[in-house]
Amino acid sequence: MKFGKVEQPELIDFTISEDHPDTQVLLSKQNKTGSPNIFIGCAKWNRQDLKNFYPRGTKDELVYYSSQFNSIELNATFYRIFPAEQYQKWYDKTPEGFKFFPKMTNEVSHLRRLNDKVYEVADRYLEVTSLLKDKLGTIFLQMHNNFNPKNWDRVVQFVEYWPKEFPLAMEFRHTDWFNDPKVAQELYHLLEENNITNVLVDTAGRRDIMHMRLTTNEAFIRYVGANHESDYNRLDDWIDRLSSWKASGLKNIHFFVHQNLELESPLLSAYFIEKLNQKFGTDLTIPQTTLSPQKGLFE
C-alpha cells in the first residue's frame, strides 16, 4: 500500500491524536457490558505479496490464510465485480466465523465518482457480494484522493440511497474534508445519522486523516506500516487506544494491517494479536509465520 508512504519514517511523529470530542459522546451512549467483536486481518492473501507466510507445499492460499486469521480486507473487489460463483467458492473455503470486509468497486468511487450512474453498479456489486452471507463484514468505500467537498451533494445522495442492511464504512482522503471544521462536522453528522462508519487510516505521510472520530460503534482501522522499527510502537499505541474505547463501550473492532511492502504484514499482525490478547483477555489465533521476529523486518 503506497498511500502515505515516506522515505524517512523516522522523522514522522506517529503519536495518535486525541479523540475527537464527539467520539466519546457517541461511545457514552453504548452498553458497556459484553465483549467486543474483534476481526484482524491483512489486505490480501496471495502468496506473491505475503512471502514467508505460507508453509512449503500449501495448495490453497485462502484455506490456509483463513486458518490463521479470522478476516480479510478484500481489496480484490475494488478492481472488478467477480462472478457469483467466485463468492460462493470463497464462502465454501473459509471456516465458520470468518469475515470478508470487501472494498467497493472503483467504478463507483473512482471512475464514476458517486455520480448518478453509480446506483446500477452498486446494486450489481451488492447482488453478488451478498452471496458471502453470514461471512460478509462491513463493506468499505474508499474515495479518490481528489474527491473533495465540492461533491457534497453526491455523498448525501449516495448515503441516503445505500441499503441499510449492508454495513458500510467510508474513507475520505482529500484534506479539505477535515481542514474546515464545519465541513468535517457536517460529514461526520451525515455518517452518524445514517449509521455509516468513518474509516480511520494510520499512515506515515497523511497524519491529517488521523482524525479519531468514530461515527458508529465500530472502529474500522486501516493501519499502514512503514517497514520500519516504529511499526511496533505504533501498534502498541493502538492497543492502548482500543482498550480505552472498549472501556467506553466500543463493541466492534476491525483492524487491517498493510505495509508499503506487504511481505511482513502477517508478522506485524501476529504481534498485534498477541498484544491484544494479553490486554483484552481474548484468545484470537496468533498467525504462524516462517519469518521470525529475530530475522524480522529491519535487518
Compact overview of the structure:
The protein contains 10 helices and 9 strands.
List the helices and strands and how they pair.
Blueprint: H1 21-28, E1 37-42, H2 61-68, E2 71-74, H3 84-93, E3 99-102, H4 106-111, H5 118-129, E4 139-142, H6 152-161, E5 168-171, H7 176-179, H8 181-193, E6 197-198, E7 200-202, E8 219-225, H9 230-248, E9 252-259, H10 265-280
Parallel strand pairs: 1-2, 1-9, 2-3, 4-5, 5-6, 7-8, 8-9
Helix pairs in contact: 9-10
Report on the structure:
InterPro entries: DUF72, UPF0759_sf. It holds the Pfam family DUF72. This is DUF72 domain-containing protein. The chain has 299 residues and is α/β, with parallel strands linked by helices. The chain has one domain: Protein of unknown function UPF0759 (TIM Barrel, Alpha-Beta Barrel), CATH 3.20.20.410. The protein contains ten helices and nine strands. Strands 3-2-1-9-8-7 form a six-stranded parallel beta sheet. The two termini are 21 Å apart. The C terminus is likely disordered.
